[in-house]
Design goal:
There is one protein chain. By secondary structure, the chain is of the alpha+beta class. Helices cover about 60% and strands about 15% of the residues. It folds into three domains: about 200 residues, Up-down Bundle (Rhopdopsin 7-helix transmembrane proteins); about 160 residues, Beta-Lactamase, CATH 3.30.450.40; about 140 residues, Heat Shock Protein 90 (2-Layer Sandwich). The strands form three sheets. It has a six-stranded antiparallel beta sheet, sandwiched between helices. The structure holds adenosine-5'-diphosphate. The site of adenosine-5'-diphosphate has 21 residues, from helix 17 and helix 18. Adenosine-5'-diphosphate binds next to helix 17 and helix 18.
């Protein structure tokens, strides 16, 4: 046997084996696609078997059988086009042209005795080659649109189709160049073998090859999986999982999360074709979820005729479904679907199950992270409450102690020396401490109102310069003089009471934290449609390490001694809230021992 004969026999054997495989698959699952594939390879195999039997046993060709074989062979291009239609969509015009070609070749062969005339054979050969090229291009395009195994399979089928087209073209042209017949025959055999191998790979890929193709996408998916639970929210995780599962399976994937309260699967289909939620029903996905068993449906419409039109509308032809569960807990279901049938196979069930398990791990980790965050938030709230109570109690206690002691002293005096003149200094101290107490309670109330977003009230046109002048004139700054610098009125739309409170607080702090003889300056300017307020002192300053937290509630800087400077650390927190609720910003520049400047920027708020 020559090498060429070996190649030719190998090619024939491969084509016959492919036919047996696809015919067996078509018998098991009688769908249009499996029948198309079986017919296509049946045509090739019958031609091979017939000519083998005739040449091996030296038999006379039986006319009926040879006619059937001829018809099958000339139907091949048409069958090829049907296959393209199974994987992608073929325009009507291409279908009509292929049918016309089929009719023409059938008539040409059946009408002539023996071989049709050479020009007609040539036309048929060119028609076959052109159609094969068209089909190959369609397969390549479909491959570019898919990923994973589907992409590789379509690439292989495209290569097989192209090689088959070339084989037919060269074999058909061979009689025209008898001199090169020997060399061309070799080429034809090699091309035919190539196309046979490519078809095996495309139509009946061995499981090991499928796995090898899936591996890179799966690996990429698993690599990303570790970081998925840290995405900002569950919908982002679901989207990432759907994308990953989709590209691994070479299909569209969607995840339905189980909502125990409503007993429904909630979907977030990025393609917007599937229903948003599916409750107990006949939907295949619900069946798989309820029975907790992964399922593969080559043709969803056939598997569930009652829902056929709905599946068709949604472009769901082939389906892979796996439940997502962690232990006994049902979390949802992963569904992969395509609008063409031959994309999945039974073998993909293992893969979809693996992806669903991975999704379960990711969703479980996410819910653990959420739970931990909830516990932390709860602890934080409890801690804040404790801080609040202890800070408030501590700060209220000092004035209260003085108040009670002073009142008791006056009471004793009134009893022991009823005729003595009233102790005015003692009474003033009581009034002062009661005022301080009341100011502290107001601060606490403001802080809590601020949290509820209820601090800032009605806005009205306010001249900040006027307001600052008013604030500067108030007493209570230990008799210190406040310098105000402003060139012109700066009018904006504000809650005058609250902005006044900000000014007063900043001035009070400037006075409180600076030496008696130093200057406190307030400057009001307008720039680029914004009001700027600067409150400057030459006081103790704020340590750099405290600056980032200085506007947080209860924060007092390290250089402030509770006994020397009374305060709760709520004033700046409230100022920041008021300024921000007016759409402004507050910040501070400070140097230890040199002084601080608090800056406030407020939008004018549309008031000229
Ligand atoms: P309180 O003055 O009641 O402590 P605030 O919220 O008004 O609360 O201020 C928080 C902290 O910021 C103060 O405890 C102090 O450490 C620091 N601080 C505020 N204003 C000044 C200032 N003008 N100079 C120095 N430190 C200041």
């Amino acid at each position: 046997m020559t090498a060429l004969e070996l190649v030719s026999q190998l090619t024939e054997a491969i084509y016959v084996v492919i036919f047996l495989i696809v015919a067996w698959a078509a018998l098991r699952r009688r769908t249009r696609t499996s029948l198309d594939i079986a017919l296509f390879f049946g045509a090739i195999a019958s031609f091979i078997v017939e000519s083998r039997v005739v040449t091996t046993f030296g038999l006379q060709q039986i006319e009926f059988i040879s006619d059937v074989v001829t018809i099958l062979v000339i139907a091949m291009p048409y069958l090829l086009l049907r296959l393209v239609d199974d994987f992608s969509t073929v325009p009507l015009i291409a279908n009509r042209l292929a049918e016309a070609g089929l009719l023409f070749s059938a008539i040409a062969f059946l009408a002539s005795v023996g071989q049709p005339p050479t020009p007609i054979v040539l036309v048929i050969v060119v028609y076959f080659a052109a159609l094969a090229t068209y089909c190959a291009v369609k397969f390549i395009r479909a491959a570019r649109r898919s990923s994973g195994v589907t992409r590789r399979r379509l690439d292989a089928i495209a290569a097989g189709t192209l090689l088959l087209g070339l084989t037919i073209l060269i074999a058909g042209l061979m009689p025209l160049v008898p001199a090169a017949a020997g060399a061309l025959d070799g080429l034809v055999q090699v091309l035919a073998l190539g196309s046979a191998i490519a078809y095996v790979v495309g139509f009946a890929p061995p499981p090991i090859l499928r796995r090898a193709w899936q591996e890179p996408e799966l690996r990429a998916f698993l690599r990303r999986a570790a970081s998925l639970p840290r995405l900002p929210d569950t919908p982002s995780i679901i989207r990432a999982l759907q994308d990953g599962a989709g590209s691994t399976l070479g299909a569209r994937a969607t995840i339905g999360l189980y909502d125990r309260e409503t007993n429904k699967l909630r979907f977030h289909d990025p393609h917007g074709v599937l229903p948003n939620e599916i409750g107990p029903s006949d939907y295949l996905v619900w069946r798989a979820f309820e029975t907790q068993r992964p399922r593969y449906y080559a043709d969803a419409a056939r598997a569930h005729p009652a829902l056929a039109s709905s599946y068709r509308e949604q472009g769901v032809r082939s389906l892979l479904i796996a439940p997502i569960s962690a232990g006994d807990e049902r979390l949802g279901a992963l569904e992969a679907y395509t609008d063409h049938e031959p994309v999945f196979s039974q073998d993909d069930l293992d893969l979809v199950r693996l992806l669903a398990d991975q999704a379960a791990v990711i969703l479980e980790s996410r819910s653990l992270i959420d739970e931990a965050a909830r516990v932390r938030a709860h602890e934080e709230a409890a801690r804040l409450k404790e801080d609040f109570i202890s800070a408030a109690a501590h700060d209220l206690k000092t004035p209260l102690t003085t108040l009670v002691a002073q009142a008791q002293f006056l009471e004793r005096r009134a009893v022991t020396e009823p005729s003595a003149p009233a102790d005015l200094t003692g009474i003033r101290r009581i009034v002062l401490e009661a005022r301080r107490l009341s100011a502290l309670v107001v601060e606490l109330l403001d802080a809590s109102r601020l949290e509820q977003g209820k601090l800032v009230g009605e806005r009205e046109p306010v001249d900040l310069v006027e307001l600052a002048r008013d604030v500067a004139r108030r007493d209570g700054y230990q008799g210190r003089r406040i310098t105000l610098s402003a060139e012109a009125p700066v009018v904006g739309s504000y809650d005058p009471r609250r902005i006044g409170q900000v000014l007063e607080n900043l001035v009070e702090n400037a006075v409180k934290y600076s030496p008696e003889d130093s200057e406190v300056r307030v400057a009001i300017t307008e720039r680029d449609g914004q009001a700027l307020i600067d409150v400057t002192d030459q006081g103790i300053g704020i340590p750099a390490s405290d600056l980032p937290q200085i506007f947080e509630r209860f924060h007092r800087a390290a250089n402030v001694d509770d006994r020397r400077f009374a305060g709760m650390g709520l004033g700046l927190f409230i100022c920041k809230g008021i300024v921000e609720q007016h759409g402004g910003r507050i910040w501070v520049e400070s140097r230890m021992g040199a002084g601080s400047t608090f800056h406030v920027v407020l939008p004018l708020g549309g008031v000229a």
